[in-house]
Request: fold
Amino acid sequence: MSKKKNLVIIESPAKAESLRGYLGDSYDIVASNGHVRDLPKNYLGVDESDNFKPTYTILPEKRKTVTQLKKAAKGYTRIFLAADPDREGEAICWHLSQILERKDVVFGRLRFNAITKDTVLKSLKKPSSIDMQLVDAQQARRVMDRLVGYKVSSWLQRIMGKGKSAGRVQTVALRIIQEREDIISSFVPVEYWLIDGEFTQGKSQFTASLCMIDGKSSGKPGKYPACEEDAQRMIERVKDTGINWEISRITSREKSVTPPPPFITSTLQQTASNRLSFSPSRTMSIAQQLYEGISFGSSERKGLITYMRTDSVRMSPDSLKSCREYLAEKYGSDTLSDNVRRYRSSKGSQDAHEAIRPADIRLTPEKLESILTPSQLSLYRLIWNRLAATQLADAKIMNTSVTVSGAGLEFSVTGEILLKPGFSIIDQAFINTKNRLPELNEGKVILGSYKKEQKFTSPPPRFSEARLVAEMKKVGIGRPSTYVSTIKTLRKREYVEKDGKVLIPSELGTTTVRLLIRIFPHIFKVDFTARMEELLDSVANGTETYPGALQQLSLPLESSLQMAMKNTDTFRNELQEETGEKCPQCNAPIVIRWGRYGKFKACTSFPECRYSKPLEEDNSSEYEGRTCPECGGSLLLKTGRYGRYLSCSKHPECKHTEPVPTGVSCPEEGCSGELVEKRSRKGRLFYACNRYPECKFAVWNRPIDKTCPRCGFPVLVEKNKKKGIWCPSCRKKIVT
DNA sequence: CAGTGAGCGAGCTTCCGCTTGACTT
Reply:
């Protein structure tokens, strides 16, 4: 009889599946799929005159889930709510209890922060009640984000045009990108010169750099030599054949290197970006596949990794134990770290989940080779390696520095040797020892060749998506489940553009964030979130109330908003640019303004005169050396919804359009076509023959007008210069 | 791996956090 069963509601279907395995037939288990209720989408939904009372509605996309939940709840008088044991999870449980409330039903709150049979059964023995203080903390968070988001966004739209947005997280993320851009654009490179000498001692040979001149340090930015003449003068001095060069000092220091902690969302994204060139979004979707598990053979589907959205480095005691057991068995117990390495969750972490780790350490990447796709396998390997490394011994590195002296000059070089691999037996990439030095002794050396080299200091790099996520995590904005979507929003709003791997603010982004920072100085900074989190903690532990926290947090928002509202026109006018042109309809001055689709020219006597026209130079410019095949007119380069294309300047009389050419002819034998830019259905650029469909030649990367020395194919250039140049046809690296 | 695309704009869309799925565009 179904009435004898108990009902458990949990967030994720994958977790529901695991619970079924532990609890058997006496429990019905259903998934809520995250939050089911939220503030309404179309209006504020917060009554500020009534203690910030929120109005909640069922999320439209969860209507089905909710009806299913209600159906499932029928007949049960006891319902267990098992969402994550954190602020959001508590709120999910409360919302569920509100929706499913009946006179005859009792709710039990289950809390476990690792899904094992043990922890789940234990929690079932001692169900507790919903913690309303924690729920209130979540509500305060939610409502504050709504107040900031909706109020500032709607104000911003009056200045910058429809569709624009601002928020506690996204605007600060944009600010981080912008501040880096400001550093880069105001950066003044400092010239400095390196002087390298090649020395020999017996059979040993090594290169060292000039570091001291007459007791003063050199060879660094701001130090001597700072220009070519100075460098040349130094070369003259080094040249002197009478100098007796000798190794005056060799110091060796042993260094211990500890393994990195297990993965959390941000570090996984970063490592996958560096090592595998995965975007954070790709990393997350592949991790999700691993989490949901892959069915193979006749065995049932089983998750391969723990939950991938976490900010805790915690490892369950079970997993620690089995990890050490496995490693001792496979590599010998002497490879293990002396003490069990335990990881604590970082400060501020809500700690609902463990670190990201393999569900079963015994399932090595090798065993999954034939089952997983290449990308799944490589991500799994990163995760497996990272966890295994945590319980292995430290690595030992010998760091040696050598000083060569002569005539008041000192050259130096440092080298590293791996003494004991320790945890790097798992993966050499954990440690990169550079510059292995040969056997050397104190005493005489001979200077061979020497050279001077010009250097410049360089600004810090722009943020890649993964680096931005790391920064967001560091300063405490955003959560593991939202890192990717925040960046997506910034791109969707066209505040930032992605160039290769890095993010660059657009003019719109720069203008918007500067305006927002100026007008809402207290809201759009990292400290605001920190202050908010503090207050939320107070609400959670009962020293502050829900309306009290919101009162304090909305104070700076409201005062800034008041000022903003009063001066909307002033701020809008400030952003206008004079053109010197006069309106052809009413003779009033024409200015450049921001609108829904970027900048445009408009009459200053709006709304009496509605004259407007686009900035022509922005999305169309003459394309050199091509003429329209239909009317002989010139061709313009335009950017449409689907990317760049050429169109006839005689539009609308002549409707000719064509894709953008590359200037490289089609390499297909007997084909006289040219390679042109195209876009796949998914929007990705590729390059194909313009004689399609007669000729079907296509490549993903942009070809340029050079040829591969191996196969004679046009060479392509990868955006990432470090990768070098690869031939698209024979796939070999081309040395240039 | 593969259509096309063109003149808007200046009040009713916008936030952050939890989770996945797909009525076929």
